[in-house]
């Protein structure tokens, strides 16, 4: 991580994020069930769109952790 003065607001955002670790873990355990599957490829862009535009964010700085086990749907985003 770049820790120079110009990164102050981003460093604070990261601190806020990790300070909310227990909230995040609780949210995952209570609201994110594993279901379905076998329908590769994944709708990666749709998921990112939902996270960015439909979630309620508490801070101006946002971090998205993208975890997947399949390539995105569009061949435009896949290395062949």
From TrEMBL:
Gene3D superfamilies hit by this protein: von Willebrand factor, type A domain
PANTHER family, alphabetized: ALPHA-PROTEIN KINASE VWKA
Name under which the protein is recorded: Uncharacterized protein
Organism from which the protein derives: Diversispora epigaea
């Amino acid at each position: 991580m770049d820790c120079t003065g110009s990164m102050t607001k981003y460093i604070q955002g990261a601190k806020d994020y990790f300070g909310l670790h227990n909230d995040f873990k609780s949210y995952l355990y209570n609201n994110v069930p594993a279901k379905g599957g076998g329908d590769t490829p994944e709708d990666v862009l749709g998921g990112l769109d939902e996270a960015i535009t439909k979630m309620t964010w508490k801070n101006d700085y946002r971090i998205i952790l993208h975890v997947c086990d399949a390539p995105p749907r569009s061949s435009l985003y896949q290395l062949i």
